[in-house]
Amino acid sequence: MRLHIKLSKNTSIVPFSYQEQQVSKLHYWLGKNEIHDKLSLYSFSWLKDGRKEGSKGLNFRTGSQFFISCYESSLIKQLIKSIQQDNDFGWGMKIKALTLEKEPDFEYQHRFLVGSPVFIKRSQAEEKGAKFFYYNDREASQFLTESLQHKLNDAGLSYEDVSVQFDESYQNPTTKGVTYKGIFNKGSICPVIINGTPEQLAFAWNVGVGNSTGIGFGSLI
């Protein structure tokens, strides 16, 4: 289930790292819950229609919009209930409208656009820290597939024969990053192609792909 959220224009500059506020508001609206420490079976997109104001941040002169998708529809219902009681998003932006969207009817392959960069991170056994992978790395498809299989298994769904890959025919892939709680993370802005059952594709549409969907990466359109 997907909840589209329409926002009014801001009255103060929105920082480039606004995703921290998105996550904070999400958990505030959900109230006491267990999803914060669990595998993220949800995803959300970045804000649309922002204009840079130099190095200060972003301005949304005509307002903005984003979506939150959850595998469990009960979470969407809780979000709606809470937002109706408190529609403040921050920086003077208020939630003006909510629209629900059910999972589309998928076939066995679908090309998804992305609502936020697809982030892939893996730890390195012989080196400190982790390595990021992007649309042009040969390991990307394997890691994207493994991440989706892990989430399907966690949800009790079949993960057999599902596969995820970046669309290699896309002409304008790029990368984009954001600082989240002092750590800079960067992902790929490139469509992904998913092969699997209609149920697996609908699941991916909700939970996103790659790592860190719970902090705003890897949402699918």
TrEMBL record:
The keyword Hydrolase does not apply. It comes from Arcicella rigui. The keyword DNA damage does not apply. The gene is cas6. Keywords: Antiviral defense, RNA-binding. It holds the Pfam family Cas_Cas6_C. Coiled coil: none annotated. InterPro entries: Cas_Cas6_C, CRISPR-assoc_prot_Cas6, CRISPR-assoc_prot_Cas6_N_sf. It comes from the Bacteria. Gene3D superfamilies: 3.30.70.1890, 3.30.70.1900. Residues 102-219 form the CRISPR associated protein Cas6 C-terminal domain. This is CRISPR-associated endoribonuclease Cas6. Belongs to the CRISPR-associated protein Cas6/Cse3/CasE family.
